[in-house]
Specification:
The protein is an alpha+beta fold. It has 20 helices and 19 strands. Strands 6-5-4-11-12-15-14-13 form an 8-stranded mixed β-sheet, sandwiched between helices. The protein has a 3-stranded antiparallel β-sheet with strand order 1-2-3, with no helix packed on it. The protein has a two-stranded antiparallel sheet with strand order 7-10. This is HNH endonuclease.
Length: about 700
């Protein structure tokens, strides 16, 4: 039987994709007031319509030297003549008078400072007054927008460069999740909010493409409830799905049929009730109750909100079977916690949009949400036979002595295997390390079983769609001890062959071993694990606000984040800084393969005879080129600025913060840049003004 009501699922996914495409609206940019069309979606539909700048000085004389305009007027050509078709666009930093606070805030955010610590650091020293939290939040959100806009521009340039090159590209990705627990918001409702972060990184360079959180900070649950489930007359709506051709005329809607199906609904309904209960506690404390009239007004408010709570309970418990969540974790009522499967689907869909065309190899853990998700998201790539999905696990509880011991044994065994292959003529001096490692894996891989006759994978991966064979890798590298790899999706010819192999077949043919070994070699979670470890160590706001010790219930971390919206902003700032401005070394998880990327070169040398112009040649020395430190450089993104003498400067954080990256590549951005360039002069010229 064909299901005729599946379209709400795609609606929920499209809504989540629209939310995350511009990072909760951070990169939406200005829009036409008549139709809502955003300028950055299609800049060709807009035309410049003037500049906001002074044309005369205080004496009425014309100003010949034009400065950078504070803002530009833009006209939406299709809506010409309508109200709101003309609007002004200004740079993100146009209203800021000083930059010291911004730079200090950025430095504090990137070095484990909490919000209270930032408030102490950038307080006004002259007056001794504290600055408000709202100012700190505004600065953090501004920094987030500038960093994300800069990253988007660099990704656009990189994608265009790769597309023009025309070479075949293989994207190696590692994907994992991180759970963050946010502090409670009010003392009357001491419940933490758990957030799941989907992270995908490039395996070769360590570049972190996306970090998406299953939290929508733009919506409020109670307003959404009133709009979706209550009509204009206040009566419930959207509770039943009609089946006109069936004997069952109507039935309560499934979660994916409901207008709030994108949300984590138990937490959603609980957050609606919590918001009303918090209001009741405040009203009881603050509303006057001296006279009978005041007491009656107070009782009426409490009675009215009680009826609202009863409506929510009737719909959530009576219709949909969601008892109000009374546990220590719930969704914040300053936003909506979304369902993780929609956030993950939007995460991978937007990841595809960011990439140049090529084959994709994705490594994940055994997450139960991925088998019903990834085949739909990457349907086109699977049909074109350019998508591979590897699932892996490893021993995360291994102690440091165990890791060191197994790594030592592995290196000794691999070295012996290499030497034996050299003597047998299997390898030579020019054989690259990757070929040796793949041969080592093929020679010593074993079938992975859980016990003696039980498949290793969890039930979601035991589908007829996926090969049932999982293997244990013989490598012990990148901290991934006792690695086990499965092959849910591989190239078509190999996938058909693997699906015919039972999960417990221990004797594998040599040809099959050699075909599987390169995929086992590519499977790694090391780059995303390195990022998560760095985030935990460097960001105090990412600390777990859970229970511990003798404490009963959730704990509160003083100075940590309690607003999920601000936490998301800090995560985005840290990720972009980690990608472009963190000069750190990175060990490629494919051990001993770095020599292929940047092999050492022989540099000729000579010694000058003292007192003469003669030189004596000496043997050349193998020198390795300077390591490309930031992930963006290793990934091929041109993040450095070239000087006239040919040298390069690393990205200047001050220059990045105060350039109109939101409008780069458009005629609007070019206008801002021309104004900036016309004022840039040499300080030694007496006829020209000061440099801007």
């Amino acid at each position: 039987m064909r299901l005729r009501f599946l379209h709400p699922v795609s609606d929920h996914l499209d809504e989540e994709i629209d939310r995350l495409r511009n990072y909760n609206g951070v990169l939406d940019g200005p829009s036409c007031g008549a139709c809502g069309k955003r300028f950055l979606d299609d800049p060709d539909e807009f035309a410049l319509d003037g500049v906001h700048e002074r044309s005369k000085d205080s004496n009425g004389k014309p100003i010949r030297k034009r400065k950078t305009p504070s803002s530009l007027r833009v006209l939406h050509k299709p809506c010409r003549g309508q109200k709101g078709a003309r609007f002004s666009v200004s740079l993100p930093h146009a209203g800021q008078k000083t930059t010291a606070d911004n730079l200090r805030t950025l430095g504090a955010v990137l070095n484990s400072a909490g919000i209270v610590d930032i408030q102490r650091m950038i307080g006004t020293a002259a007056t001794g007054k504290k600055i408000g939290m709202s100012r700190i939040y505004d600065r953090i959100e501004w920094l987030e927008g500038v960093f994300l806009a800069y990253e988007r521009e660099m990704l656009r340039r990189w994608k265009n460069k790769v597309d023009r090159c025309g070479e075949a590209v293989e994207h190696l990705f590692s994907h994992d999740d991180m759970v963050l627990t946010v502090n409670w918001e009010t003392s009357t409702d001491r419940r933490n909010t758990q957030l799941n972060c989907a992270i995908t990184a490039d395996a070769r360079s360590g570049y972190v493409y996306r970090l998406d959180v299953d939290f929508d900070p733009r919506a409020t649950p109670l307003d959404m409830f009133n709009a979706k489930y209550l009509g204009k007359d206040g009566l419930p709506q959207n509770l039943e799905h009609l089946y006109p051709d069936s004997k069952v005329k109507a039935a309560p809607k499934f979660s994916w049929q409901r207008p709030t199906g994108r949300c984590h609904e138990p937490q959603f309904f609980a957050a609606c009730v919590n918001e009303l209960k918090t209001f009741q506690s405040r009203a009881k404390r603050r509303m006057p109750r001296k006279g009978d009239a005041q007491k009656a007004a107070r009782d009426n408010v409490i009675e009215r909100t009680n009826s609202m709570i009863e409506n929510i309970r009737t719909i959530s418990e009576g219709w949909f079977g969601f008892p109000i969540d009374t546990s220590e974790e719930r969704g914040s009522f300053k936003g909506v916690t979304t369902r993780d499967i929609y956030t993950k689907g939007a995460h991978f869909a937007l990841l595809k949009e960011m990439l140049p065309r090529g084959s994709i190899v994705l490594t994940t853990e055994q997450e139960a949400t991925l088998p019903p998700l990834l085949p739909h998201i990457f349907d086109e790539e699977i049909r074109e036979d350019r998508f591979a999905w590897l699932a892996m696990t490893f021993n995360k509880k291994a102690t440091k002595p165990e890791k060191l011991g197994k790594v030592k044994e592995y290196r000794k065994a691999r070295k012996q295997f290499h030497n034996e292959g050299m003597y047998a003529g299997r390898f030579d001096f020019e054989t690259d390390p990757q070929t040796v490692s793949e041969a080592f894996i093929a020679d010593r891989m074993k079938t992975a079983l859980r016990g003696t006759a039980t498949a290793f994978q969890i039930s979601n991966y035991q589908s007829v769609l996926f090969p049932s064979l999982w293997v244990r890798s013989s490598t012990q590298a990148s901290g991934e001890i006792d690695k086990v790899v499965g092959f849910p999706i591989l190239p078509r010819h190999l996938r058909r062959k693997l699906k015919q192999v039972p999960f417990d077949q221990e004797e594998l043919s040599q040809d099959l071993r050699e075909e599987i070994a390169p995929w086992v070699y590519k499977a790694t979670l090391q780059p995303v694990s390195s990022f998560m470890n760095s985030l935990r160590e460097r960001m105090s706001v990412a600390a777990r606000a859970g229970s511990g010790g003798a404490r009963v219930g959730g704990s509160f971390i003083q100075g940590a984040i309690f607003n999920p919206r601000t936490l998301i902003a800090l995560l985005n700032i840290y990720r972009v800084h980690y990608n472009f401005f963190e000069p750190r070394p990175y060990a490629c998880p494919y051990e001993e393969i770095d020599d292929l990327v940047d092999p050492p070169k022989l540099s000729p040398r000579a010694l000058r005879i003292p007192g003469t112009d003669e030189f004596v040649d000496v043997p050349p020395r193998a020198r390795r080129s300077r390591a490309r430190m930031t992930p963006a450089m290793r990934h091929g993104m041109d993040a450095f600025t070239k000087r006239k003498d040919g040298t390069q400067d690393p990205p200047d954080i001050y220059r990045i913060l105060y350039r109109p990256w939101l409008y780069m590549g458009t005629k609007l951005g070019a206008r801002f840049e021309r104004s900036r360039g016309s004022n840039r002069t040499k300080a030694t010229s007496p006829r020209q003004g000061q440099a801007v």
